[in-house]
Amino acid sequence: MIKEINEFGWWAMIVYDPFWRTLKLRGSSSYQLIHKHGYSSHTLFRMRHNLGISTALIDDLCELLDCKVEDILEYVPESKTKKLP
Predict the structure, then answer these.
(1) Pairing with 32, which of 23, 55, 78, 85 sits 20 to 30 Å away (CA)?
(2) Residue 39 φ/ψ, nearest 5 degrees
(3) What crossing angle do the helices spanning 17-25 and 55-65 adopt, rounded to 10°?
(4) Splitting the chain (85 residues) into consecutive groups of 10 residues, what average pLDDT does each group show?
């Protein structure tokens, strides 16, 4: 998987692709996280764009979704995040 620089000019080394898969597997949605569980839309925006989030939030999401950290995020080495020429 090759990740390119995002629209904010940051290399995405931590990606939240596993989170979106886990959310779907658990039968939940962004809408439920915001309206039922009180997460902010800004938090989900940050995750959608692979921006940083706190370890406390990761802990909360793991508890809510009954999953492991690797079900929330994935580390992509820098060599795989740069855009190929």
Answers:
(1) 55
(2) -75, 150
(3) 20
(4) 52 87 96 96 94 95 97 82 49
